[in-house]
Specification:
single chain, 279 residues, six-stranded antiparallel β-sheet, four-stranded antiparallel β-sheet, 3 helices, 11% helix, globular, disordered N terminus
């Protein structure tokens, strides 16, 4: 009989792909062979609005909100998490008969981290289009990263799943990914309506939680720039005003409540944020 005892772990797999990104995989494992997990506060590098900066900017009848999605708060964004179930051999017994396999449940993070949730409210009185706008992520050293399309992220998901025991869940994972709105050059926002979606950038490869920590340690500030957004047109429909929005986020460290293996030293390598928790 399989008990309800659960243990938290994280499995991350690297790959070779043109976009050179990773997708974080947070796995909440269940089975009778594991001791009860423990809750712990783990220090996690996160992004917060820079001093004096706001995540909401209103200009020329457009309000843009940008929120960072990082290792410390991704459970607060339910759209980017997909619950999956699978079966696998017990730890250390890869050749065990299927009758002895263990049922698992877990949560896949659909986007590489850090990413950004974006909301654009249109009060211009005309259709607001992102075509022609320039969207970039910059760090304090002026390194610039371009947005990724949904197809890029979907392709990385296939690479992540390859060889994993939950690989047969890939179709369900990609269906969930297809339900996310990506903010790109094709968006059209009607007057008095709001676009909500995500920005994913081509940041350096992050294939493990340790890679995430190293990347975060390498930056002091990340700035999301949305430039040349047409916010006003003449009677013929030609652009007469273009507006730039900037959002500055500083790296800091926060204690995040996580569930960890009972006998392990708490770290982001081994622990998973409590659902709905984070900074």
């Amino acid at each position: 009989m399989v008990s309800k005892t659960q243990s938290e772990a994280r499995a991350v797999r690297s790959w070779n792909s043109p976009v050179r990104l990773t997708t974080v995989v947070s796995l909440a494992l269940s089975g009778c062979v594991f001791p009860e997990p423990k809750a712990a506060d783990v220090q996690v590098p996160v992004l917060v609005p820079a001093q004096g900066a706001e995540p909401h900017v209103s200009q020329d009848n457009v309000t843009v909100t940008v929120l960072p999605v990082h290792w410390g708060n991704y459970t607060q964004f339910p759209q980017v998490n997909k619950r999956i179930t699978w079966r696998e051999a017990p730890p250390g017994r890869p050749g065990a008969p299927e009758g002895e396999w263990i049922d698992r449940t877990g949560s896949i993070v659909l986007l590489p981290l850090p990413s950004f949730q974006v909301q654009i409210e249109n009060r211009t009185g005309h259709v607001l289009r992102t075509a022609g706008a320039v969207i970039r992520l910059r760090d304090q050293a002026s390194n610039s990263y371009t947005p990724l399309a949904r197809a890029d992220v979907s392709a990385t998901q296939a690479n992540v799943a390859s060889g994993q025991p939950w690989a047969d869940q890939l179709p369900q994972i990609q269906i969930a990914l297809s339900g996310l709105t990506f903010v790109d050059s094709t968006a059209e926002i009607l007057p008095n309506e709001t676009l909500r979606g995500y920005l994913v950038f081509s940041i350096p490869p992050i294939t493990t939680p340790s890679d995430y920590e190293r990347f975060m340690a390498s930056i002091e500030r990340l700035t999301v720039v949305i430039a040349d957004l047409v916010t006003e047109t003449d009677p013929a429909g030609n652009p007469s005003r273009r507006t730039q929005f900037e959002f500055h986020f500083d790296r800091t460290a926060q204690n995040v409540r996580m569930m960890c293996p009972a006998e392990a030293e708490p770290s982001i390598e081994l622990c998973a944020p409590v659902q709905g928790g984070g900074g």
